[in-house]
Amino acid sequence: MFEARVAQAEILKKILDSxxxxxxxxxxxxxxxxxxxxxxxxSHVSLVxxxxxxxxxxxxxxxxxxxxxxxxxxxxxxxxxAGNHDAITLSSEDKGDVLGLMFESTEQDKxxxxxxKLMDVDAEQLAIPVAEYSVCVRMPSAEFARITRDLSxxxxxxxxxxxxxxxxxxxxxxxxxxxxxxxxxxSVDDEKKAVVxxxxxxxxxxxxxxxxxxxSKSAALNESxxxxxxxxxxxxxxxxxxxxxxxxxxxxxxxxx
Amino acid sequence: IPVQKNITSYFGNR
Lengths: 257, 14
What we know:
The complex is a heterodimer of chains A (about 260) and B (about 15). Chain A is of the alpha+beta class. Chain A contains four helices and 20 strands. In chain A, the strands form three sheets. Chain A has a nine-stranded antiparallel β-sheet with strand order 6-2-3-4-19-18-17-11-15. A five-stranded antiparallel β-sheet of chain A has the order 5-1-7-8-9, covered by helices on one side. Chain B contains no helices and two strands.
């Protein structure tokens, strides 16, 4: 028996919004420690890794580890029908073929029950090693969304160059070019609005703009985002979710051949 | 022309 209850549907809505355009289907791996999901986009250059820790749920029970193969669009559509403040309980029998969803309104005067058919999702599980990153940039997630959106009007690659002085996002396209530099915040009145740049070694790497734009749509998950860059490893973009866990996106760099 | 490797080439199978 698997059962997980979140107090507010809002967080699940935000999580599903952040991954469902990138990932069509995936396996929710449910175990005693929580729910995780690893899924690639259809072109296999990016990967989403989601972790929802059991402590982040109001109630959590998973007697034995199970894989729930889910169509993300279907799940997203159903969860969207819940009120933001509704409690949501996800459930599945050990050998069940459906994922049950129960929404309860705050006044407990409305209860909705849905079932989604489970599917066989053939997804390879990858071991993601802990990478040594050369650069870690923490910045407001809204700013990251704005920068990627603004540069996406010009070019299909964004070069991210980082030194101790700042981080530069630049692009070139048929119609011209553009670049935006962010400097490290000198005074930090508000942690969430700060730009913090940690540099072990300066680095410049190029990435597909359309994926950065996709990732940056997760801004609702956290006011801050971290970009982790290293030589020879994929970019890791992380949106932490307080006690709940995180959504991480990995993207292969564009390498000149 | 820049190339993007498959993301699986960076991560091992579990």
